[in-house]
Design brief:
- The protein is an all-alpha fold and 285 residues long.
- The chain is 87% helix and 0% strand.
- It has helices at 2-27, 31-55, 60-86, 92-117, 119-127, 129-142, 144-163, 167-194, 196-203, 215-231, 233-237, 241-266, 268-284.
- Helix 7 (144-163) packs antiparallel against helix 8 (167-194), helix 7 runs parallel beside helix 10 and helix 10 packs parallel to helix 13 (268-284).
Length: 285
């Protein structure tokens, strides 16, 4: 898989440029242009995937080639515009501030990987690949609410809330958004829980029907995760990113402990209960 690793590294480099341009469009509140750019990227990648996979038979490498092409197109497009608008320059003071702000989040990123992926290792050890497949499907479908609601909401939430300059206004906005966002995400989560059997039947092979049992638990966990994301906005605004890292790292440790305790007894359902308990504790803290 060495070639795939090289392509993946290239994708990450291209993404680091394209994401800067896309965040810039968010700051300018150019939602229409943002939508056009991301839609063109999606269509390009989809077309290339069909060609590389069906036409050229490149298998998983075709997927990576298509993603790389899409990211390069966006990176080159927004990169040229950004350089034309801002010119190339380096600020030591700004770099120092950015490093101070973001360095603690390196721990948060590593802990987040453990938090969202570590339970698979426990399930694999206790029940084998079949149970990993069932749990992986339940986890993917259970996080639909977070993907559809929070990730779309976050595109404008962070640029908007960072543009506020009045502390009292920040409090009022975050309180109001937390209420309505939680209600919306709870509505989606309830739908996933009530119709978990139908969702699995619609989106998966019949062999994976048992995944419906864990779907409501994972969905409930991601409801709590979404609440945490909104509340944690305060830490980002106050430049207390170390607090986010401490909370996520503690949650990762708790999740590992719960998986170690529950998975040997309950199998892959134990991992689902651990996800719900961990994210609820994180939101509560």
């Amino acid at each position: 898989y060495a070639d795939a690793l090289v392509l993946t590294a290239g994708i990450l480099v291209a993404q680091s440029v394209s994401q800067v341009g896309l965040r810039w469009l968010q700051l300018l509140e150019r939602s229409t242009l943002y939508g056009v750019v991301t839609t063109v990227k999606l269509l390009l990648e989809t077309g290339l995937k069909v060609w590389f996979l069906a036409g050229l038979g490149l298998a998983y490498m075709g997927v990576l080639y298509s993603v790389l092409c899409g990211e390069l197109v966006v990176a080159l497009g927004v990169g040229v515009v950004l350089l034309a608008r801002t010119r190339f320059a380096f600020s030591r003071a700004m770099a120092r501030r950015l490093w101070t702000y973001s360095a603690p989040l390196l721990l948060s990123g590593l802990s987040g990987f453990v938090l969202h992926q570590g339970d698979r290792f426990f399930v694999l050890e206790a029940g084998g690949e079949d149970q990993v497949g069932l749990y992986g499907l339940a986890y993917k479908l259970g996080s639909i609410g977070n993907t559809v609601v929070f990730e779309a909401f976050a595109l404008i939430w962070y640029p908007f809330v960072f543009s506020l300059r009045d502390e009292e206004k920040e409090r009022r906005v975050i309180r109001a958004v937390l209420v309505y966002f939680t209600l919306l995400l709870a509505f989606v989560t309830l739908g996933l829980a009530l119709f978990s059997a139908e969702v699995v039947q619609l989106l998966a092979d019949p062999r994976f029907a048992d995944a419906r049992a864990a779907l409501p638990l994972v969905a409930g966990g991601y409801l709590a995760w979404g609440v945490f994301q909104v509340v944690a906005t305060v830490f980002y605004l106050r430049e207390r990113t170390w607090a986010v890292s401490v909370l996520v790292a503690a949650a990762a440790v708790l999740n590992l402990a719960l998986n170690g305790l529950l998975v040997p007894r309950l199998g892959w359902m134990g991992a689902a209960w651990a996800t719900l308990a961990t994210f609820a504790a994180l939101a509560g803290c």
